[in-house]
Design a protein that fits this description.
The structure is a homodimer.
Chain A lengths: L9 H27 L2 H8 L3 H7 L3 H24 L4 H18 L1 H12 L6 H24 L8 H17 L1 H7 L7 H18 L4
Chain A binds a DNA duplex through α1 and α3.
Chain lengths: ~210, ~210
DNA sequence: GTCTATATTTCGATAGAC
DNA sequence: GTCTATCGAAATATAGAC
């Protein structure tokens, strides 16, 4: 009996269902907001009865909290692309690439994150004050060192980081507006490459490394 | 009898009450989202009984629609700062100044707009397809002309506009995150000036005019 | 124009059979 | 573990006295 044929164990079923629900929830929370989302909508999108959601996630808030945390993990993972670089051009360039790729692959997650922060971070505030604050201070120090070594222009590291976040996430959070201004069509592969190149060129020239 | 002493006319009362309700609604919609906002919350913030809101605005959606349109008007008005400029440095610099000022003075409005677009622009889609599209095409042509005349670096005008919107609005939409990373304190006058200068320096150098 | 009381709907959550 | 039926709370909206 192969692994594929073997009936799923209890824990496998749980993992599978939870992932299915989380995926549906991410989409609904992104499209309707926390207040606008309903457990019924999420259940319908997941193809499960509503009561089933409450079996896996006690409350709507528990489900939402898990969605937000998942996105934060993806962010943190991508942040590593900046750490391994030898200098500003490679480091910041790679970070832009990674963030743009997340905007393309996880637009729903980005919107949920944006909505959460806009509403005062009711469930993720502790992460902002610990993990994000530590990461930001660490990266700001790296950028400041590059500046002090004369390897890039003298800019406030924090405002540079804000610009990196704002610009890359804009392609996910305001994707609907961009699509409308693109004649109602989603960006093609080529247009995504143009976007990535434009952002990288503008910012890398802005910090004086090209 | 002076104008100040004269009892308000019906239309004056209406204007006054509508403005009061709209101001309260903008704040509540920004902080809770459309779905999370309740007429009761808005009524309490305006200091009026809930039924009074329904007298001036038939439905919650009508009230929301008016809030979104008000913000859009502010945006359009600020857009003029770019039109009267002689060249890219003045035009784009003035536009950044104006947008940063709006982010500071109207953070609630900016968030309501962001939320509306993130959810697919259910009430403002027609404006995106007409007014915003026309404005964007017009500005893109101006930027393209500056490029063709060799007055700034060769960048995709649309992606430059997206970067301008993203970066300036980030200070309103993600103000809570920025405040948290600032030690939990709102940006001071001096820090707002630093932010504005940082954004302008980065972008103007990015387009090769400084 | 204002406001209390209430009708109506919808949602989150749960009980309990299978 | 799954799902139907339903409860109780909360929301939008309105009726009708003032």
């Amino acid at each position: 009996m192969t692994a594929a044929e073997r009936p799923l164990r209890r824990t496998d079923i749980r993992r599978e269902r939870e992932a299915l629900i989380l995926q549906a929830a991410e989409k609904v929370f992104a499209e309707a907001g926390f207040g606008g989302a309903t457990m019924q909508l999420i259940a319908d999108m997941a193809g499960l009865p509503k009561a089933n959601l409450h079996y896996y996630f006690a409350t709507k808030e528990d489900l939402y909290r898990q969605v937000v945390r998942n996105i934060f993990e993806i962010w943190l993972h991508a942040a590593g692309s900046m750490d391994e670089a030898a200098g500003p051009a490679e480091g910041i360039g790679a970070y832009i690439d990674a963030k743009m790729e997340i905007s393309r692959r996880h637009p729903h997650g980005s919107k949920v994150w944006a909505s959460e922060v806009m509403h005062g971070a009711p469930v993720i505030q502790d992460y902002l004050e610990t993990t994000l604050r530590d990461w930001t201070e660490g990266r700001a120090r790296v950028i400041q060192r590059w500046i002090d070594e004369g390897r890039m222009a003298r800019v406030d590291p924090r405002h540079l980081l804000y610009m990196l976040w704002a610009t890359t996430q804009h392609y996910a959070d305001f994707g609907h507006q961009i699509e409308t201004l693109n004649g109602g069509k989603p960006l093609s592969d080529r247009q995504w490459k143009d976007a990535k190149d434009s952002v990288k060129t503008l910012i890398l020239r802005g910090i004086g490394v090209i």
